[in-house]
Amino acid sequence: MLGLNNKDTKLLIVVAVLTLLAPFILNPFPAGSAMAQFNAGYPDLMQRFVIFGIFAIGFNILFGLTGYLSFGHAAFLGIGSYAAVWIFKLFTYNVVPAIALAVIMAGLFSVIIGYVSLRRSGIYFSILTLAFAQMSFALAYSVLSNPKFNLTNGETGLQVYADDLQMFHREGLPDLPHLFGLSMRSTYNLDIGAWSFSFNAGYYLCAVVLMLVFYLSIRIFRSPFGLMLRAIKSNQTRMSYTGLNPRPHTLAAFVISGMYAGLAGGLMAAMDPLAGAERMQWTASGEVVLMTILGGTGTLIGPVLGAGFIKYFENIFSKINDSILHEWFAFLPDGLENFMVFIVHPFVGKGWHLTLGILFMLVVIFLPGGLVEGGQRIGKWIKNRGKAKDSGATTEPAE
Amino acid sequence: MSKSNFTRRGVLKTGAVAGAGLALPTIFTAQSGHAFTNDPTGGTVTLGFNVPQTGAYADEGADELRAYKLAVEHLNGEGDGGMLNTFTSKELQGNGILGKKVEYVTGDTQTKSDAARASAKSMIEKDGAVMITGGSSSGVAIAVQGLCQEAGVIFMAGLTHSNDTTGKDRKANGFRHFFNGYMSGAALAPVLKNIYGDDRKAYHLTADYTWGWTQQESIAAATEALGWETVNNVLTPLASTDFSSYIAPVLNSGADVLVLNHYGGNMVNSLTNAVQFGLREKVVNGKDFEIVVPLYSRLMAKGAGANVKGIHGSTNWHWSLQDEGSKAFVKSFGTKYGFPPSQAAHTCYVQTLLYADAVTRAGSFAPCAVVEALEGFEFDGLGNGKTLYRAEDHQCFKDVLVVRGKENPTSEFDLLEVVEVTPAAQVTYAPDHAMFGGADASLGECNNGA
Amino acid sequence: MDGLILQILNGLDKGSAYALIALGLTLIFGTLGVVNFAHGALFMIGAFCAVTISKILNISYEVIDPNQTDFLGNPLKVKTPYVESWFGPEMGASIIDWSVPLAILLTIPVMMLIGLIMERGLIKHFYNREHADQILVTFGLAIVLQEIIKYYFGANPIQTPPPEALQGVANVGAAIGMDLPYPIWRIVYFCFSLGIIGAVFAFLQFTTFGMVVRAGMADRETVGLLGINIDRRFTIMFAIAAAVAGLAGVMYAPINPPNYHMGMDFLVLSFVVVVVGGMGSLPGAVLAGFMLGILESFASTTWATTTLPGINQIIIYLVAIIVLLTRPRGLMGRKGVMEE
User: Fold this and answer.
1) Which of the two residues, A351 and C141, has the higher pLDDT score?
2) How far away is chain A from the Cα of C18, in angstroms, using its nearest Cα?
3) In terms of pTM, does the model score above 0.80?
4) Could you tell me if B55 and B111 are in contact, meaning their C-beta atoms sit under 8 angstroms apart?
5) B408 at interface of C, judged by CB pairs closer than 8 A
6) What range does the domain containing A177 cover?
């Protein structure tokens, strides 16, 4: 279907079903129950899952295929966001032109930065991209937000003010980003018994975009171009000896992944019309690297899983406080309850960084292929149960 | 959240709905009969405490959270009642808010606009918070305030000192109890003039972002009006950890006062470096060299250690104040946690009480009713003396403290001493003041959401 | 002119910290081939050794003084450190005063131990893994280490002043007839770093152990084939690199009060330093450290920032880009290292 082989079609269908049914899947616990804390099916987080999924898929096209580790991809995300908010400020709240410009701007910047950075390889390439991104961050945070020439609005973040131009904004259109009149924030709530599920317009826009770019990424992975990129990773020298020039291919991959980042940035601004400079900081670039490796570098679905994993921790674990812990362990005798709270306390709430750090280490140590490998191992284990114990061999990451 | 498009959604989502015959079609936040976002229907009401729990301001955030928990206890009638007993408005009975028990959710702003908005959104979308409060920096406060305006919930700002929060970025749904850069300047300048004379040459080091600029602008204007000269203003990157290369040029600049427009880790390091370079022992133009830190906090003073001794600055509130409200608050907080509260804790505690009181007086949780109840509200008994929540910009006007690092602290908390309590009248400015967005600045319409 | 020399001093001082961290990073990379993202955290732990020692020395007993009151109006509990009651108030006070230099004695064994545990327990298993995996696992470790420190010491910076005798300023220009006041502790720090750098180079250059290590860095396999247990020596080098980072940290504590994320603040910069110096080159790391320190100081002068606004924010990265584009492997890098 759609020019894909059987396996890929299945994968695409799985992704489509997962994203479309996410409001159900992510809200498995009845609202109001003690476990509702772990529900992730509210619009903002679902949007984040998908947007960072797109970001990571794009990053994986560069890193997973060519092996070039960029430490500055967050810059393109930031540029995309700023471009989108400027469209909101100057022209219209309609998200289509905003997202289009976000992709174009990120593409332009990635051509320039990629052209320069790709003159080097290995860690030298990583440091060049890091340097560009850090420069963008520093300039956006301060110099480019001075009152005379306020391009980024610095610390506060670029936002839309009531007195902004908004040339094509008409009466009757939402005062928030919208898709031809459909506000990105409009949400339909479905209550079934004790459960509550929200269907958000913005989320479904992101989900459709995710499916499109996921399909695109499968096509890239399977194309001769993708094969060429893999050749760059395995042996660049040999590739040049066969008379092929690797650099245009790498640059193309860099620009494509930069545009994915810009798309993610544009979508972020479309969901929430504010663009902050922190989006470009090196820690944000590091985050997408972590997502990709955590999920499984070079696999199709891995980056999306990694993105979901990290965002889930950031948003769910950081909100668990002591009084919630006491609620959980309330069934225990007092002394034991306090003891359990004492034990769990350092790992949740303000300690969510600690848990995340420990999980990174565990995943990297025991699952070198990331979460995808974990899934495959479990799958294999189930298949081989009862059969002869001869599997033992390493698993190749699926692609 | 504020705009919903029912029919269109209905059309688009028919497929999804069709499968769910049991479904009660309701629009998020606009359940039938509810006129505003997250109307608390059960026996409880949820407040969202959004404070930095990771990053450089985590300790300040932890102190804010302690204050919030204390406020919730007092509102629910537990503990000793704290400032409820001294507050001039007697509406709060210790039975929750409007008879509903107060519950809360917490989140981590990470002192980043994006993360703070994500956290606030999850409180609004998932936990049904009807009011968001907290924060420890102006960038975050402005970002979250904007979000609350769009979403139709009330935002009670925590620690935010930039003029912009109630200046050019003021919002109808947002309220600030904390003081601002202009007030720091207006309170500090006369005291500095009295102590150091009126012919000083000041050298400014300013953190290179919005808060730093408004702070520097305010303090320079206030001191220049009293005869001081501003020799130089150097912008320092926020990411700086070592300020030696910014301090060294001060030595030969001819300036005799160094003003450090820094906060948090920046301030701790720049002050430490300035003292290291022997600035305090220097004599320039026949006068002793002086250092001024316009915005002080006890947690920062603790980080800077002995370096703060004798250095002047301003602060919103200090635990050594002897009015009844402050004493009651210090007593409840100190008894519960074992140490005195910081100014951030005080502001957060007071903001929660003020919100609860406004809801009670309005008789409704609807944001617009709360806004109306808070606008122009005058009260006393919450520390800082008589206070006005001004209607035009939602800024509190109250006494500002000028403090000095104590020479002989008796304990690890006893780091600052109050030099002067500047009366509110002296720090009041026009709502359309040029530093606050001028005539263009507007609150906009209050938003009930949904 | 005075200003210029002061900025050079500042640059050398900043450069000292960069150079020490970069030196350790390069040692680890050159020997084990591992990219250690937890190196900044080791620097931070070193600084917290100073904090810990000063906390330990300040452990106090409390006596209730009925004449004074605390903030709640209760009688004040006056704290007296045990050290002062054991050694007498004066002797005790001066022991506390010298807590940072005392901490150096603790730092060396503690950091070497941490280094050994890290290498044997974790890094060992990552010799043959991809650099990306090494980065991720050490980055995870860095987060865990800094969160542990935060849990015990809080997020606020903690002031750890130098001994009274080493506070204040000294006129370093006296010999050449100029007035150049400069903080004594910063001079101490610079001399200390030079000493450490010198010691590391001397160790590698003039001892048999160092010779073997250098041989191993050049060709690990051959050295191994000669029947030398190179792995054990490399493990010890890891411990030494950790100790260098720790010493850089402990001495840095009085310059700027340590906080739990200071390691991350230095991490990115020191990677830039290492790469500008050239991966795997020890002299390159030291040279680049001092060079970037000095350039950073110059860029923050008023003259520079008025000519090019914001230059102080980006100078390090700008220099990194220029160096890498003109010299493909940094200042002194070798071909083929980390380029695949």
Assistant:
1) C141
2) 16
3) yes
4) yes
5) no
6) 6-301
